[in-house]
Batch of 2 targets.
Target 1
Amino acid sequence: MTVLLEAKNLTTMLRGKQGVVTAVDNVSLRVEAGRSLALVGESGSGKSMTCNTLLGLLPSNGRVVQGEVRYKGRDLTRLSHAEMAKIRGREIGMILQDAMTSLNPLLTIGDQVAEIFRVHRGIRDKAELRRLSVDVLERVKIPAALERLDSYPFQFSGGMRQRVSIAINIALSPQLLICDEPTTALDVTVQLQILKLLRELQQQRNMALIFVTHDLHLASQFCDDVAIMYGGRIVESGPIADVFARPTHPYTAGLLRAVPSLGRYEKRLEAIPGQQPGLTEWPQGCRFAPRCPLATQQCRDQYPDWFEWQGGARRSACWQTMQMWTQSAAPRGNETGDADADAAVNGAARVRREVA
Ligand SMILES: Nc1ncnc2c1ncn2[C@@H]1O[C@H](COP(=O)(O)OP(=O)(O)OP(=O)(O)O)[C@@H](O)[C@H]1O
Ligand code: SF4
Ligand SMILES: [Mg+2]
């Protein structure tokens, strides 16, 4: 698999009334060409801030203080605003939760779609711009696209506005599309239509996706890989089927137990007790410790190191997982091949049993 984008130790700080706080903390993630990565976590865990950091779209009080975002051999965090503006839209698109926030209410749909061809391709001919705009609106299945060019966003339904936003973002065939909860504001039927459309476009163009969602069902149906975020950090990641079948981090296990008929937690549904702390309230050690049934003094004192297996495809940041995995692996006296996989499965099973 070709790695399209890779973030390493990405850290973003925000300056506010309460001083400087860390919103994205040491985040590392990898998106492979043509694959989709789900970014999952509770509200406030830093999903949007991570996406905005990847695309250089931070608020004026935000700054990347550490790490890099490798894309086609370049570190995006080091590019100028002008260089990033060329990459956004042309190579990497971004769709937001509510298309109303990304569309200009004062411009017609036609003008907003044409703008992308005007800015990135330098096309000035009005007839050509209209033709290209109709073409891309038809690709996202806007009915009567030619007649709708002169409509304004408020004349479109929420689902149709989201299609327009997708059209603008795929117009130049980007290799990566970042979708920040693109369907949360839509009803279930429209949500499914938009997801189907995204999947079709992804397959037609071998486009990679970062798909931000709270919905674990959706993520499992739609994505290949998953990264679970908590308190500005990624706490567990890997191929989604494996992570959901064998979660190793107590937070992932807790999320799955709160979802009906997902994974193996069909009998009893439970919310994770407590709340995710705000940016200024993060505890010193593991950020999940105040809510974690397995927390020890070590967890409260020290942030867990990353623990990797399956050649780095699976990662977890949890002291207990690391300990259980090590104990499971130890009797075999080696850390390769099947024994490696067995140990991970045994360790994961113990974490789940003890969280339950
Ligand atoms: N401009 C800002 N200034 C200060 N803090 C901010 C700003 N934007 C976001 N935050 C804080 O950063 C943290 C991460 O926010 P972010 O929007 O990335 O969360 P999220 O995981 O996307 O949540 P949601 O699921 O609700 O969209 C939150 O605590 C949020 O309050
Ligand atoms: S490091 Fe400790 S507190 Fe954190 S998730 Fe693991 S067991 Fe729970
Ligand atoms: Mg968000």
Target 2
Amino acid sequence: MSNFKSNTTGRYPPKMIYSSAEGILFQGDCLALMSQMSPDSIDLVFADPPFNLGKQYNSEAFNDTLETEAYRSWCQTWLLETVRILRPGGSLFLYHWPKWLIEMGHWLNSLPVLEYRSWIAMKMKSGFPIKNRIHPAHYGILYYTKRGDKANFNVVRSRAPVCRHCGKEIRDYGGYRGKFKKFEDEDGIPWIQIADFWEDTRPARQDKSRQLQIVELPLLIPERIILMASNPGDIVLDVFGGGGSTYHAAQMHERRWIGCDIGDVTPILQRLQTAFHLDPSESVDDIFLRCFKPEFIQLELETYMREKRIDKVKDIETLKDVKDSSQEYISKSRVLKS
Ligand SMILES: C[S@@+](CC[C@H](N)C(=O)[O-])C[C@H]1O[C@@H](n2cnc3c(N)ncnc32)[C@H](O)[C@@H]1O
């Protein structure tokens, strides 16, 4: 069925749902939120938008079957907003599948303010064959920085793979194993610099233990991005929150975060409650104030207090299927001094 309904809607103004020293979460339309944000104020943007594949999300508020042109212009509109909000030297990451990454990359390359850094490909373990097509086996991330200042870049490492049975290293170091000695952990296994092909990730999954239909990326993906292109204290923005993996990774590594989703944000709150315990505040931390138009954030804070939204957050339960969050949500990436 032809559907030219736009995802850009004034019907979902952003409502502040959670405020803490670490992060601030809104429910509403990403464009409506970003229109209230200050230019050059964010250190890192990560975006994992709906892919326009007709997926059934938990929200009636947007449409995942737009006509190609409508989807293209919606993506370009919010991408331009993220570029405006990003500070000079800040980094932009876009997660998508190749069909759209080619197109978005071509278009982003034409924006003089952006510098292309990388295309990161990641293995899609549960890909399935499609008739008369080559088997799709990867997703990708486009990585850009905004010109005008020095960009952050940290070398991120992951633990060298070992044999499941004997625990021995399976990587061939081509005679250079000694070079990795200084990056060995307590078990003598070295941590290796990640490249632009990630074989150890699985794609977004539908978490069956959640009440709502949400798709979430493995923590590893936002974790690597955040470690690579930001430093502790920096502000990370993700306006397509989903299950909250970006906010989780940011908070885990002492970055601040600003989040948003047009659907129910309960899954995000549940995840943060499980991993860290929510710590709602009656104010907006100073560090976030500079990211918003003053009149917007002041009005939102007043409404948040008047409607006692903070009490609802206090009632959020932890995720029942996560027995030991320190094990389930373990960090798998490190930035080590050389
Ligand atoms: C692919 S999911 C993001 C998953 C997330 N990266 C994670 O790991 O949990 C995309 C999300 O974008 C949200 N979304 C769709 N349109 C939106 C809009 N206009 N503004 C804000 N959020 C939107 C959907 O509700 C959905 O939760």
